[in-house]
Amino acid sequence: MDNKTLLTVESVYKEFPIKGNHPNLKVLKDINFSVETNEFVSIIGQSGAGKSTLLRSIAGLLTPTQGKIVFENKVISKPDANISMVFQHFALFPWLTVNQNIAFGLQSNRDLSPTQRDHRVANLVKMIGLSGYEQSYPRELSGGMKQRVGFARALATEPSLLLLDEPFSALDVVTSKQLANDLITIWLDNQIATKSIVMITHDIQQAVQLSDRIILLDTDPGRIAKIYQINVARQDRTIRNIIDIIEEITNELIARTNAYQKPKLI
Ligand SMILES: Nc1ncnc2c1ncn2[C@@H]1O[C@H](COP(=O)(O)OP(=O)(O)OP(=O)(O)O)[C@@H](O)[C@H]1O
User: Fold this and answer.
1) Which of 1, 21, 156, 179 has its CA 20 to 30 A from that of 129?
2) Which residue is closest in CA terms to ligand 1's atom 2?
3) Are 1-40+48-76+204-266 and 83-158+161-194 equal in CATH topology?
4) Helix (H, G, I), strand (E, B) or coil at 133
5) Pairwise CA distance, residues 25 & 78, whole Å
6) CA gap 62, 44 in Å, rounded
């Protein structure tokens, strides 16, 4: 496996201004980590820890107040064509069909002829399990199928980095598991160009089952508390085999959440 670094987050701080005469809201503090080629990294942490802010910064949708994010040896300053994002609530265009939604991001790609574009969309439809739904509209699809379109659309531009913002949390347990399995299979089989994946999730079991590493963020301001390397081979990650890791991470998260919520005495 090629272990070249694809992404580095270097001393990133993020503050948001608050209206009125208030100090800025400090959301991220001194975040440092890297993502290697062929790595799946999950980010967990309690609500408000700054996970989405971090992911949106990596996507080039937010600019760090301090520090920098380097992707494929370039500092991220705006959305990059080689980074795609999948959202929790699908974010599909309701007036476009499945095929049109998937093709949407390809319209500005002048290197692709219409035939090549149709071919790429058809391949994705097949790969992601949408065959037969090409001409359907989002309103005619189940949540799981809508998210399959979300994944196909994100993958259409052949991004080397895929960012997932709680992509399975709006789905039932079985659908979520099936979709996650399908994603991991096509990624590990190199059926897609995506080299690495960064996912935000609240589902610790799923994070342990899918990830190479899990970053636990502390809150107020969001900072890295711990990084867990998951050393069990992916094919062996039955619940029985990973229950101790799930328990360890869950307890750590609960302890940190309790500490954060304890009333301050002064
Ligand atoms: N554009 C913004 N302007 C001002 N404050 C913001 C902005 N975006 C996020 N915040 C604040 O930053 C903090 C972190 O938000 P963020 O959505 O990154 O957390 P999160 O860990 O993803 O939370 P959740 O798990 O609930 O989605 C919150 O207090 C939020 O209100």
Assistant:
1) 1
2) 16
3) yes
4) coil
5) 22
6) 19
Confirm whether the ipTM is greater than 0.90: yes
Q: Is 159 in the pocket of ligand 1 (CB under 6 A)?
A: no
Kindly give the number of the ligand 1 atom that is closest to the alpha carbon of 54.
Answer: 18
Q: Which atom of ligand 1 is the closest one to the Cα of 219?
A: 21
CA 137 – CA 134 distance, rounded (Å): 9
- Ligand 1 atom 1: residue of nearest CA: 16
* Span from the CA of 61 to the centroid of ligand 1 (angstroms): 14
What pLDDT does 2 receive?
Answer: 47
pLDDT in tens, 182-229: 999 999 998 899 999 999 999 999 999 999 999 999 998 999 999 999
Q: Which CATH number fits domain 1-40+48-76+204-266: 3.40.50, 1.25.40, 3.90.550, 3.30.70?
A: 3.40.50
Domain ranges of the chain: 1-40+48-76+204-266, 83-158+161-194
